[in-house]
Amino acid sequence: QTVVTQEPSLTVSPGGTVTLTCASSTGPVTSGYYPNWFQQRPGQAPRALIYSTINKHSWTPARFSGSLLGGKAALTLSGVQPEDEAEYYCLLYYGGAVVFGGGTKLTVL
Amino acid sequence: QLQLQESGPGLVKPSETLSLTCTVSGGSISSGSYDWGWIRQPPGKGLEWIGSIYYSGSTHYNPSLKSRVTISLDTSKNQFSLRLTSVTAADTAVYYCARWVHGNFGFDYWGQGTLVTVSS
Questions:
Q1: Cβ atoms A15, B75 nearer than 8 A
Q2: B18: Cβ contacts below 8 Å, ≥ 6 apart
């Protein structure tokens, strides 16, 4: 059973920068896993932010960026806003199968 | 603007079959550029991919649910459906439908979700 691991929680100050990561139990995450990132606010459906490691959707704010970092997929928020407080999920693609990470609760404080 | 809307019973009895439909508007499910997927989220927990279907009818399922899941398409109604058999309380969740973009290798548009409770 493949497991995708994220930090359970992170805290960042308004205006600050924070990086969330996404690791695979099968080994280093590469671009071939096409990492995706989603934001979910309480009571709402997930909203897609990043696909295929670094690509933004038309609606994704510029302060969000995706990358690979130390064998993991990463989501960096620069100039964090209060409305960025949410749960963030990564997704990795395993050749037809999809696995979500457990989510990171981001607190802006 | 593409929209997806889940529909179906909000309450299912244990051991019975959960059936949900996702209606797609603003785009065709017959496009070869997309898969159509189901994802669920138990209360207070994370997201779990259930499975996806291509317009040709080919499917991919989560191995942990594969024996109980069927996803199908109705192109005449621009809908796709989920059937989950032999449900238990562990299947209580918000169920989402979403579009998977082949070129992007990712989900982009999601439905608002529908809560299904398994209880007698």
A1: no
A2: B8, B9, B12, B82, B83, B84, B85, B87, B91, B116, B118
Task: Fill in the amino acid letter for A53.
Answer: T
Beta bridge partners of A94: A97
pLDDT at A28 over 90: yes
Beta-sheet strand order (sheet of A64-69): A4-6, A17-24, A72-78, A64-69
Scan for tokens 């970092």, then name that residue.
A69
Q: Is the pLDDT of residue A68 over 90?
A: yes
Among B2, B22, B33, B47, pick the best mutation site for testing chain A contact (most A Cβ within 10 A): B47
The answer to whether the CB atoms of A97 and B60 lie below 8 A apart is yes
Report the C-alpha gap between B68 and B70 in whole angstroms.
Answer: 7
Token match 């499975």: residue?
B51
Predicted confidence (pLDDT) per residue in B30-39, tens digit: 988 999 999 9
In the DSSP assignment, the letter for residue A27 is B
The closest of A104, A103, A23, A89 to A50, measured between CA atoms, is A89
Query: What letter does residue B72 receive in the DSSP assignment?
Result: E
Across the interface, which of B46, B64, B112 has its CB nearest the CB of A102?
B46
In tens, the pLDDT along A15-25 reads 999 999 999 99
